[in-house]
């Protein structure tokens, strides 16, 4: 039997949900009854930064997109704006509009010049996700345009495709000051927009560039040596119930190009990761001309 909520409670919940929508949060879950300490109205905003403990190292399993909690039920199926359109170009525009001149996390007031939303083919089969914009990206408004971006372009070319064929984005869309690692609360606040981008693009493969991207996408706290070398089944949070036509992506982890610039000896390892992706996508390296 469905529970009929008290009208006053329903109004209060509606108000709270409006507040979360303004933050860009759309997915709400209620735990199964085996959590007795939670009341029937213990509604949690899965992506709410306010509900997340400040844990720098440990990733909460509840945050995992890939390891979506099976015992949770989406009780408020509020459509995201982009779900009203089928064209991914229009859908990405709606996500960008929803992001607006974002001030949701503290990175907005720490010297960013502009928001770096993402770039590339809205129907890409392959998507690369990095950590956050650097100085060049902040200046140009496009991810991976500096030296690391040049190396990423070369990696993409070596796979037999062009940069324009893939989609590139970051976990956080504003430059952390001094290129520091984005902090947990910043990633938690910004990553729902990345998840929505992935859900619209529906790539076959997502490549996480570096540990920060991998840990935020997978919520697995492990060293790169353990994260690399295999595929993960990946479904961005919120996409599962909204699109039965897409069963999610495979996710691979490789080194961030900035790390490869610092330690070129690891390029061979990164190439192995990309070859695994190429094999899955049926890509072949370009023929070398004599
Ligand atoms: S990093 Fe993301 S959440 Fe934070 S201000 Fe920029 S766009 Fe908003």
List the topology elements.
Blueprint: H1 7-22, E1 28-31, E2 44-45, E3 72-74, H2 88-99, E4 119-120, E5 126-130, H3 135-140, H4 147-158, E6 167-170, H5 184-201, E7 205-209, H6 211-218, H7 224-227, E8 232-234, E9 249-254, H8 257-262, H9 267-281
Parallel strand pairs: 5-6, 5-7, 7-9
Antiparallel strand pairs: 1-2, 1-3, 4-6, 8-9
The structure holds iron/sulfur cluster (SF4).
Mean pLDDT over all positions: 82
What oligomerization state is this entry in? Answer: single chain
Strand content: 5-15%
| Bound molecule kinds, no repeats | iron/sulfur cluster
How would you explain this protein's 3D organization?
It is a single chain. The protein is α/β, with parallel strands linked by helices. The chain has nine helices and nine strands. Helix 2 packs antiparallel against helix 5 (184-201). It binds iron/sulfur cluster (SF4). Iron/sulfur cluster binds at residues 99, 102-105, 107-108, 115, 172-174, 186, 189-190.
């Amino acid at each position: 039997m469905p529970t009929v909520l008290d009208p006053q409670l329903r109004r209060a919940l509606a108000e709270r949900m409006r507040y979360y929508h303004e933050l860009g949060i759309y997915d709400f879950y209620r735990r199964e009854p085996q959590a007795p300490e939670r009341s029937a109205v213990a509604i949690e905003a899965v992506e709410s930064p306010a509900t997340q403990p400040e844990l720098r190292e440990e990733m909460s399993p509840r945050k995992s997109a890939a390891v979506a909690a099976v015992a949770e039920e989406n009780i408020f199926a509020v459509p995201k704006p982009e779900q009203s359109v089928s064209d991914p170009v229009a859908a990405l525009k709606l996500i960008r509009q929803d992001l607006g001149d974002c001030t949701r996390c503290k990175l907005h007031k720490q010297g960013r010049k502009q928001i770096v939303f993402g770039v590339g083919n809205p129907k890409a089969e392959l998507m690369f996700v990095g950590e956050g914009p650097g100085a060049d990206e902040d200046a140009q408004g496009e991810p991976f345009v500096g030296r690391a971006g040049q190396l990423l372009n070369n990696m993409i070319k070596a796979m037999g495709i062009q940069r324009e064929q893939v989609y590139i984005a970051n976990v956080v869309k504003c430059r952390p000051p001094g290129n520091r690692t984005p902090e947990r609360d910043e990633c938690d606040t910004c990553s729902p927009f990345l998840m929505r981008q992935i859900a619209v693009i529906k790539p076959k493969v997502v490549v996480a560039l570096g540990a920060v991207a991998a840990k935020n996408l997978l919520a697995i706290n492990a060293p790169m040596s353990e994260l690399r070398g295999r595929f993960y089944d990946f479904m961005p949070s919120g996409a599962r119930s909204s699109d039965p036509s897409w069963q999610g992506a495979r996710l691979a982890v490789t080194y961030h190009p900035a790390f490869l610039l610092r330690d070129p000896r690891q390029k061979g390892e990164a190439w192995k990761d990309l070859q695994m992706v190429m094999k899955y996508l049926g890509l072949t390296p370009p023929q070398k001309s004599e």
